[in-house]
Amino acid sequence: MIRSPFGEELNIFQCIRYALDKSGVLTVLPGAQSVEEVETLLSYYEQSEEVSDYSIMGTFASPQASEKCVYCNHCKPCPAGIDIGLVNKYSDLARSGDAMAVEHYRTLDKNAGDCIGCGHCDRRCPFSVSQSERMQEIRKYMDNHK
Ligand code: SF4
Ligand code: SF4
Hints:
Blueprint: H1 12-21, H2 35-42, H3 49-52, H4 57-60, H5 84-95, H6 99-106, H7 120-124, H8 131-143
Bound molecules: iron/sulfur cluster (2 copies).
C-alpha cells in the first residue's frame, strides 16, 4: 500500500541515500523487524547509483519544493568534473555556520570556480534548479570566505 501523499514512493535505498545526502547527516539508522530486513538494508552498499537515485522525487514534489538543490547528482556528468551535489552541500553547510564546510570545499579537485556555464546540469535537474547560476553564486560566496 502506498502511503505517500504524492501517490508514489521511493524505494528504501533511495530513502537512505536521500537522508545521507542531507546537510549535516552522517548516519542513518533505519528500523528493521527481522534479520531479512537487516540484510536488505545492508545491501544498500551493493546497490548501483541508479537504484538509489532519488531524483524521481522531482516529478512528484510540489512546485514550492522545487528549485532547491537536494544534492542528488542526477545532473551528472558535469563536463568540468564538478561534483555538483557536494559543492552545493558544502555551500549550504557553510551558509548555515559550519566553518569546516569551507575547508572541505577547498579540498575538492574541482569546485564552483571551474564551472564553464555549459547548462548541462540545468537541463538535467528534475528539481528545476538553475545550477549554472548557482555555481556562480557559490563561487562568489566561497571567494569571500577565505
Ligand atoms: S542541481 Fe538538481 S540534479 Fe543536480 S544535484 Fe542539485 S538537485 Fe540534483
Ligand atoms: S553548468 Fe557548470 S556545473 Fe553545470 S554541468 Fe556545466 S560546467 Fe558543470
